[in-house]
Predict the structure.
Amino acid sequence: MTTVPLPYRVTAVSAENADCVSLEVAPAGRALSGFSPGRFAMMYAFGVGEAPISVSAIRGGHRLVHTVRAVGAVTGALCRLRPGDTLGLRGPYGTGWNLHGAAGFDLLVVAGGIGLAPLRPVVRHVLDHPERYGRLHVLIGARTPEDLLYRDELEDWRRAAAQMEVTVDRAGPGWRGSVGVVTTLLDRVETAPDRTTAMVCGPEVMIRHTARALLDRGVPAHRVQVSLERNMRCGTGHCGHCQLGPLLLCRDGPVVGYDRTRSLLAVREL
């Protein structure tokens, strides 16, 4: 891990939807190490600033992929980068998904919107190592069909034995899938609560409702992992901008067990 941005060169750019881009980057010199699914980097757009972005793929040769949604000056600048451009990267920071602790369990992945990006390497890892896990269920929600991420990959995941369920909030005339919030898909999944590990990422309201629904179905709170987002600025737990109760999410998160965050998230509803 480094607290000084290292130069990385953009090697490929993929437009995922109208406002999300996946950037594949490779070190232009010294490489960062220690990335795992769920951890994030501070990505620096030169002359603009930096933003925390979770890794959405980890490839050979120290190549990383980050999926960025253009929502402000920094992320907008990152989304405008092209192959050959240079950005700064520091990290990795935070906690990752506990895949080791999920070994032998059925895995339930629930993603909303851009929340699929940090969960993408989880799905790939499980599909690459099916002998280590039980059944894989992937539930995805998006605003519209056009907002879905990794649309070409989703069918590959389905063919590779993942149970895939997708829903959208608003559908156009060509959509033949489900319409509704992602929690409605839970009724389609047959799980043994004591043999299930859930990993959830998306808007915070979606995380709260999904976690509650899982607990109502008997999944223990410590078996529900959630990825939370706050205003992360330093990435090292010093500035305090990402504080959630006693937690500093850039250090103690972003992936945290729901048993540790249940009461903290409930307070935010008042």
